[in-house]
Amino acid sequence: MSAVVQQSSGVTSAGARVGRAVKPQSESELQASARQARTRNRVWVWVGRIAVAVIFIGGWQLLTQTKLLDPFFYGQPTQIWDALVTLFTKGTAFGSIWDQLWVTVQEALFGFLFGSLAGVIIGILLGSNRYLSNVFNPYIKIANSIPRIVLGSIFIVAFGLGIFPKILLAAVLVFFAVFFNAYQGVREVDQNLIANVRVLGASPLQIARHVTIPSAMTWIIASLHTAFGFAIIGALVAEVLGAQKGIGLIISQSQGRFDPNTVFACMVIMAIVTLGAEYLITLLERSVLKWRPPVRSESQAI
Amino acid sequence: MGENTPKRTPVPPGVADDAARIDIIALTKRFLTPKGAPFTAIRDVSLTVEAGQFCAIVGPTGCGKSTTLAQVSGLEKPSSGSVQVGGRIVDGITNGVSYMFQADSLFPWKTVLQNVMIGPVLLGTPKKAAMALAIDWLRRVNLSGFEDRYPHQLSGGMRKRVAMAAALINNPRILLMDEPFGALDVQTKAIMQTELLDLWEELRPSVLFITHDLDEAVALSDRVVIMTSSPGTVKDVFDIDLPRPRGDVQTLRHEKRFIELQTQIWESLRDEVTRAYERTTGVAA
């Protein structure tokens, strides 16, 4: 008993000491200082970010201007800006830049849509059926190990220079990214949950609707982030291989004219498109996965 | 099988119908291990749970208690022997059964209300009626006002109460509980046990309740079954003649008859627990 008393008196004296060192603060003051600290933090992060951009682009500009790097091969930030302005004001040899952009975005979007749809459906199917999964397992592995970009050449030979072979290539690239995640997601479903609804009398369809699909959704949505990048790559590469319209065509033309600035300009345009899509996917993620506890992994924060 | 039968407390007539009687007859379940060797989880288990009776199964780790439950629910098929519910042999999922696991088997992507609703929804109840029922059940487990929360926003005890409402909402004939309160702290556990007993008195399903906790088994049940270490089989059956309603589980623990029964059952259980422990640690007896 005496030990407890001693301990508690020790605590109070420690508390008093702290109280003397730091002025006693009210609730609102504490809140205000916490908010200040957070703002300060955010400001510093942005200072860091801007510094990185300035050093990178400025360094590039400096190195090419002083001819340490040859701007003929490496381009130059100011010239890339000029190329961008030219693309948007004067258009391209094949019509306005908006036309080209629309074609590429269309291809990527359709490819993304079909690819992810097929990936989700087949992933869930194989994930929930052991027999099918065992049968198709080696073939999926083989299909995954072939360099799929090369399929673009075959698609163009087979289907011509139109928009369809681009959609196909984009869809193939997207498919595998989504498929493996959907498959894994179904495999990771909590067996207790399935047993629980089965006992309550759920049909296989009800199990899929109430358990399997919502549970795999975490995995599927995570894969969509990378999948859209793949869709853009698929569309661009197929256009570089042969097209009548599209950003990829501008890239391959500029390559022929030894014009790295326009190539970089096209990269900037596509990066902006991808960032926009990424933002939309994040919105989707938030609304579909709003049930998740707000603990985020480091990679998601980036 | 040393039947240890003092006087049995009869189940109040008219509360439970005979369709809820569980007869497990010479039940044996063998599995193939991943290496292909057969493994007998339970052997020749026979026991009867009268309609509306609360029966606890106690036994050392890995003695096939959960396997027994899986056969009763129809999730697994017995290798030999049979399970009868209400006189009918179980083949496929048994009707009118609810399960409660140790890990809370709530859907993390459904709100509390949607979690409780799932039972009637799966039976085809219209959404509005199911929702009204679920709201009523949440009130009964003292969770009114938490309908729109997600499971991760609740404490362990609250999640258990949601699981309990979800398990009881369909008014099951049979309630299978696999160490439902095993992961709870002692105080929450006592509260949940009392709440479970209250709800059980009201609905009177037959209960098969797996637990490691002998106190819990004695405090809740009409009958305690002791299983041997693997392969599991019934070692002893004790009837608990503590009067019902039992009221607060915490006070019950200090009653003389409770302590008597507890001591008696522990005698029977101790050998099995020791044997199972020696097996897992590799110490020769």
Structure explained in plain terms:
The complex is a heterodimer of chains A (302) and B (285). Chain A has helices spanning 2-21, 27-65, 71-74, 77-90, 97-128, 130-145, 151-159, 164-187, 191-199, 204-241, 247-256, 260-288, 298-301. Chain A has 302 residues and is mainly alpha-helical. Chain A folds into 2 domains: 2-69; 76-301, MetI-like (MetI-like fold), CATH 1.10.3720. In chain A, helix 7 (151-159) packs across helix 8, helix 8 (164-187) runs antiparallel to helix 10 (204-241) and helix 10 runs parallel beside helix 11. Mean pLDDT of chain A is 85; it is low at 1-19 and 298-302. Chain B has 285 residues and is α/β, with parallel strands linked by helices. Chain B has 2 domains: 2-96 and 172-281, 3-Layer(aba) Sandwich (Rossmann fold); 104-171, no CATH class. Chain B has 8 helices and 11 strands. Chain B has helices spanning 65-73, 112-122, 127-140, 156-168, 186-203, 214-220, 249-252, 256-281, and strands at residues 2-4, 22-32, 38-49, 54-58, 80-85, 88-89, 97-100, 174-178, 206-211, 223-227, 234-239. In chain B, strands 1-11-10-4-9-8-7 form a 7-stranded mixed beta sheet, with helices on both faces. Chain B has a 4-stranded antiparallel beta sheet with strand order 3-2-5-6, with helices on one face. In chain B, a hairpin with a 5-residue loop joins strand 2 and strand 3. Chain B is globular and about 50 Å long. The two termini of chain B are 23 Å apart. Residues 1-15 of chain B have low confidence and may be disordered. The A-B interface holds A 190, 192-193, 195-202, 206, 210-211, 214-215, 217, 289, 291-293 and B 70, 73-75, 93-95, 97-99, 101, 103, 105, 107-111, 118-119, 122-123, 150, 152-153, 170, 176.
